[in-house]
Automatic annotation (TrEMBL), chain A:
Oxidoreductase among keywords: yes
NADH:ubiquinone oxidoreductase-like 20kDa subunit domain mapped to chain residues: 20-157
A GO term for molecular function: oxidoreductase activity
Organism: Sumerlaea chitinivorans
Superkingdom assignment: Bacteria
Name of the protein described by the UniProt record: Group 3b Ni,Fe-hydrogenase, small subunit
Record-linked PANTHER family: COENZYME F420-REDUCING HYDROGENASE, GAMMA SUBUNIT, HYDROGENASE SMALL SUBUNIT
Keywords of the record: Oxidoreductase
Pfam families the UniProt entry points to: Oxidored_q6
UniProtKB/TrEMBL annotation, chain B:
Source organism (scientific name): Sumerlaea chitinivorans
Positions annotated to bind Mg(2+): E45, I371, H421
Keyword terms, alphabetized: Iron, Magnesium, Metal-binding, Nickel, Oxidoreductase
Family as reported in the entry's similarity comment: Belongs to the [NiFe]/[NiFeSe] hydrogenase large subunit family.
Protein name per the record: Group 3b Ni,Fe-hydrogenase, large subunit
Matches recorded under SUPFAM superfamilies: HydB/Nqo4-like
Cofactor needs: Fe cation; Ni(2+)
Amino acid sequence: MPSTKKAKRPKLAVFKFASCDGCQLSLLDCEDELLDIAGAVEIANFLEASRAVVKGPYDVAMVEGSITTPHDAERIQQIRRASRFLITIGACATAGGIQALRNFANVKDFISAVYASPQYIQTLNKSTPITDHVFVDFELRGCPVNKYHLVEVVSALLNHRKPNIPNYATCVECKRRGTVCVMVSHGTPCLGPVTQAGCNALCPSYNRGCYGCFGPKESPNTYSLSEWMRDSLQIPKPDIVRLYRGFNAYADAFRRQSEAYEK
Amino acid sequence: MKSNRVIKVDALARVEGEGAIYVKIRNGQVADVKLKIYEPPRFFEAFLRGRRYTEAPDITARICGICPVAYQMSSVHAMENACGVKVGGQLRALRRLLYCGEWIESHALHVFMLHAPDFLGYEDAIQMAKDHPDVVKMALELKKIGNEIVQVLGGREVHPINVRVGGFYRVPTKREFAPLIEKLKWALEASLKSVAFTAKLPFPDFEQDYEFVALRHPDEYPLCEGRLVSNKGLDISIAEFTEHIVEEHVAHSNALHARIVKRGAFFVGPNARYSLNFDKLPPVAQEAAKEAGLEPVCRNPFKSIVIRCVEMVFACYEALRILEQYEPPDRPYVDTHPRAGIGHGCSEAPRGILYHRYRINDEGLIVDARIVPPTAQNQRTIELDLQNFVPRHMNLSDEKLTWVCEQAVRNYDPCISCATHFLKLHIERE
């Protein structure tokens, strides 16, 4: 980042909540860019990568994972206060993640189902996205995030511009790649028409339907897609419910559609 | 030196997930050791119920971003076991190839980015890169090649999309694989250099009488299949896993502690695999191990860093062998038809054996799921290491003692996200 002030690199911090670590790992998976990123910013808190911890305030905080414990609900407040820009990375942080499947059940049943001493359990009834708790400056979608999107967001924030991340449907990416539509050509159910682009329409290029890793696109017509899957493809309703209840199950559009079909 | 002290690491760095260490020293003796895991619960076993058997590889991959392939392999094997299907030939070879990609990626990450900085006194790999730029660049390139295997075959490096019960959704052509062959030849050489580099690190003299547990296959260094064996008499099929290995609920940790019935703690992961399967390594890896000064059995957990490099040599060699003999199969998968029953799967995740068991009904819906990840199995052993290691280093300052305790934990490359995929215990804060 060109700057008139000398050697004052912006501070980047990475924090984790309930998640699999995959989105943070995507930053370490930027093998070609990693040393450049480390040169451009001061990595002030990134426990997965370093035991060196620098105190805030931070210029950019990246938050992975969803809020599932009372302690984490407090911790996110502290992180927000210490951060100039807060961006969420991945489906857990932006939609509650796969662990939000508890939101459709009674968490007490979950606990007693898998567990010897339920009295020790300390967990919230719901897994919620970061934006339910604090103001979020930018949400980066994906399960996992696209690593090039990560680089783009960091670069955009540090250069005071808007990140250039697509908000159209996965279908657009299929068309660009020249992938034949899996729904039209072999009747495979696919969330592509209602899912935000970002993975370069990976699944259809491997002959399978999209299962919604990037969550709902802007104003998705889930109603129409579901009717089409049910009536034209003869997909049973419970399978359609399961399709929406994946890694972005608690994102509004997917949640409402799955609930409508659960009845 | 103070004879009463408490060593605390509130948030372990350079491990996957969130954990802490607590060591209490009273009158110069180790009075208490706790590896605390406070990662939040995620309840995978609970919400897998009612999902289709075909969804297990996509869902369980989300337990871990570093070793999703391990979750996918253990789950597809378990489901095929339940359905009475065996996957052989090129499809089986491709599964090994995918796993090799994950081993290369995960081992390169752990060896150079998470573990080597400990031995050399750096807080992270980025600091290390200033003094050892060639080593860090080589490591990043190795890691990238591992990731490329997973990407070409699996679709993407984190949470691959191409794995299904019965095989793959689509198999790559020879042409898609071709660029990997030259890269893997380089990676094999780089892995050999890694062995030589890590062999020269300063190792504490610390050997313990562990019970090593790993898969063992009659013809191969184990990845997805085999019997479960140990150096103390265990020799069972994976279907017998829960009869011999039990999990206990201990008050201070958020993940369950596993032990072998009537014996106790055991050790899974690179040291165990290597020590139980040295004879199955290809000659190039055996030679590299010998030159690095490793015996065929290695009881020093700090030397796991060298063994990981030896296993990278194996993984590059094996991946090359598979690619050079690759002929695309006629179909990308074999058909599976669900039937009511129980299926078991166990594979060698980079950190050790990962066991899955599912009960499915005749519609193919999951009725019950059980997943035992490697870190839960190693937890007790990690604590015992600290208990035995700390007394030898009482003369160190608190700061240095803290760091060596962290290092002793990082020997295991513990994956805490994996270990606590469904549990959370209440933690008493000191």
